[in-house]
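Tutorial, part two.
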Amino acid sequence: MVELGVYGRDQMLPDAAIAELRKLQLRAPDAEDAAEAATTFGELFALWLEAHAKTKLATWADDERRYRMHLEEALGGIPFAEIERKDVREVRDVVAESAGPIQSNRVVALFNRVANWAVDEDRAKFNPAARLKKTGEERRRERILTNDELAQLWSVLDTPPQIDREVGGLTDIDLPAAVAVRRALKLLSAKAR
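Running the prediction step on this input gives:
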């Protein structure tokens, strides 16, 4: 936003204001606008990784790997302001075809996290992939142990924990906790039956 002056005080009458506005519209973008336009998605990702992900997310290494595998070549070198929804959709579809729908969902989620961070940090005006549909439906997996697997688990849990002072591992202080954890696991597995 640009202030042109106070009406009447600086003799900025409507005609003068319109003339000044036309001059401003013809002016080249300022350095801040040029810097924002030149920021690529790859540069934004690097900033997001260092400023946000590494300090707040336990999964930052997975996000970096996912970026390198699926986003870097396709979108990394493009100025963020030039990325369109169709570009992200194309990446989503390629990943769905090559790595599966769940990985595709994760890639879109990563793009959205970086883009939303950029918007929140005033490094971008909007997220072009906001509300982009996922390709696969994710379901929670549930697995129930068979009776043979439960018997095997109980056998292992019944074996007393060993303390090996030369190799390391459990100490005399750790032993009661290890026994308590084994009992809790037996209780949970018995309840699951």
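The helical segments are 14-26, 31-38, 41-56, 60-75, 85-99, 101-120, 147-158, 175-192. In part three we will examine how such features are distributed along the chain.
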